[in-house]
UniProtKB/TrEMBL annotation:
SUPFAM superfamilies: YWTD domain (SSF63825). The keyword Signal applies. Residues 1-20 form the signal peptide. It comes from Fontibacillus phaseoli. It comes from the Bacteria. This is DUF4221 domain-containing protein.
Length: 411
């Protein structure tokens, strides 16, 4: 009887300790193993680059590339000579390529490096109610791409998605013309067998949608859009609350987070008119959106702004400039670099970029840019150690044609 009692006690102990798991992290300290790589986030597209200790992973035009940080030479994630990776997709289906990401259902580009694994969104054909339908799925990949595991099937393709501290955050919105336009933010806990998606926010803006989610520390920062407006919301992971940030009384102001540095949020304000001088300033706050102050960086037009731990980057808003407005203003074809004392230390030429592109602030070593040109998707890189020398310049890393991958690396 005593043996049976001891056995039951041991079982109960194992169950209780097993259920407890790892304590939740509600700190605001960045953990590279478990936290979203916010410094690789692109406003709009989300994240398409992942960084490990030794290298970078890139998703470009449906193919994954790896680049060692020492050699800085990108290669396809799958370099087997018998793979399908170098076939032309329009004439040969890609069936044997660990670097390929199927996107025939129109999934959002997404690649994230998290806790030693890669995560992507890919298309697959699944059976639902005795019908074959195309769905977007979240897949977990080993670092060499040889192992793939389905994590989650999405009912609707997420416009925004991020993985942070064991949780997948993603948006859900029905774009069918007969739907009511409802949009939500969901969370799904990784590593829990019985986990199901949970709603953490339901949007109410007319014709509203969410384009960006940037987790940092115990917060998820959300960019929500409506008719002629946008605003930033903060989801407190610990309290499980969603609240608007910044001055809700200033009805004409639209705020968006532009960067995170030294436990501070960098953001800008837009008042609907790029000629409104209030939109030419940059601001910072604490992680809760309080203690707002204006930064002493002077610009002569509305600008896009980025930041890492050593620099501020600003570029005149080229997308608003007409030839008449551009005359006499700061050059929109360069990124101006300021140090932490807000002094201009360099300017980087970006005249080669087309109108449509996204700049990725990057880590302490490299900045990146994504753009398309002549039927190709291109990724370029800038070595930040050259900032201040007058020689800092972007060079092409990867060119992926629509019909299949090619590589071009400038010396």
């Amino acid at each position: 009887m005593r043996i049976r009692y001891l056995w039951m006690v041991c079982c109960m102990f194992l169950i209780l300790t097993g259920c407890a798991g790892t304590p939740a992290d509600y700190s605001n300290e960045y953990n590279p193993d478990t936290d979203y790589q916010y410094f690789l986030h692109e406003q709009g597209p989300g994240i398409r680059i992942g960084a490990s200790k030794d290298g970078y992973y890139f998703l470009n035009n449906k193919y994954i590339y790896y680049m060692d940080k020492t050699t800085m030479k990108p290669v396809l994630l799958d370099n087997r000579p018998d793979s399908d990776c170098l076939k032309k997709e329009d004439t040969n289906p890609i069936e044997n390529c660990n670097a390929y990401v199927a996107q025939y259902a129109g999934p959002k580009d997404f690649l994230s490096y998290y806790n030693g694994k890669l995560y992507i969104i890919a298309s697959d054909t699944v059976t639902e109610r005795d019908k074959q339908v195309d769905r977007a799925q979240l897949l977990e990949l080993s670092k060499d791409g040889t192992e793939r595991r389905k994590i989650l099937t999405f009912e609707f393709i997420p416009q925004a998605i991020a993985i942070h501290r064991g949780v997948v955050y993603y948006t859900s919105m029905d774009f069918d013309q007969n739907s009511d336009g409802k949009y939500q933010i969901m969370q799904f806990r990784l590593g829990q067998r019985s986990a199901k998606p949970e709603v953490i926010y339901e949007g109410t803006q007319e014709k509203g949608h969410i384009t960006d989610m940037i987790p940092y520390g115990k917060n998820v920062y959300i960019l929500e859009w409506g008719i002629n407006m946008y605003r930033t919301l903060r989801y407190d992971i610990q309290d499980q609350t969603v609240t608007p940030m910044y001055d809700e009384d200033d009805e004409n102001s639209n705020e968006g987070i532009a960067g995170i540095m030294d436990q501070k949020l960098l953001f800008d304000k837009f008042y609907g008119d790029p000629l409104d001088e209030r939109s030419w300033h940059f601001y910072e706050s604490n992680l809760e959106g309080e203690d707002v102050r204006t930064l002493p960086i002077k610009r002569d037009f509305m600008s896009s702004v980025y930041a890492d731990q050593k620099h501020f980057f600003a570029r005149t808003a080229w997308y608003y400039l007409t030839p008449e407005l551009a005359e006499g203003r700061m050059n929109p074809n360069q990124i101006d670099v300021y140090d932490l004392d807000y002094k201009l230390v360099d300017s980087i030429d970006v005249s080669f970029l087309p109108m449509d592109h996204t700049i990725i602030t990057g880590d302490e070593n490299n900045m990146f840019v994504h753009y398309g040109e002549d039927g190709k998707k291109i990724i370029a890189v800038l070595d930040k150690s050259q900032i201040g020398s007058g020689k800092a310049a972007f060079r092409t890393l990867i060119e992926t044609k629509d019909e299949g991958p090619t590589l071009r690396t400038n010396p």
